[in-house]
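Pasting as-is:
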Amino acid sequence: MTITTIKKALRISGTNTAYDDEIEILQKAAEADIIRMGIKRLPENRVLCDHAVILYCKAHFGYNDDTSGYQNSYDALTRSLALSYPAGR
């Protein structure tokens, strides 16, 4: 997943680089959290993992009114992924 894709999801212009460092940190944090949840083997089609990264970034980027909604969606998706793609499977 590229930072450009995440910026589009956050509704940030591709030419605006002011938040790139924060977005990159959030992306890395989301990927580390997905691994922490026990998802050691990612699916061939990473669309659900990419969506989880976007939800994580939306929940933690800036200040917005629906932080808990995005976080709840992220939590539900990563729990589902952990059950579907556990370590050693």
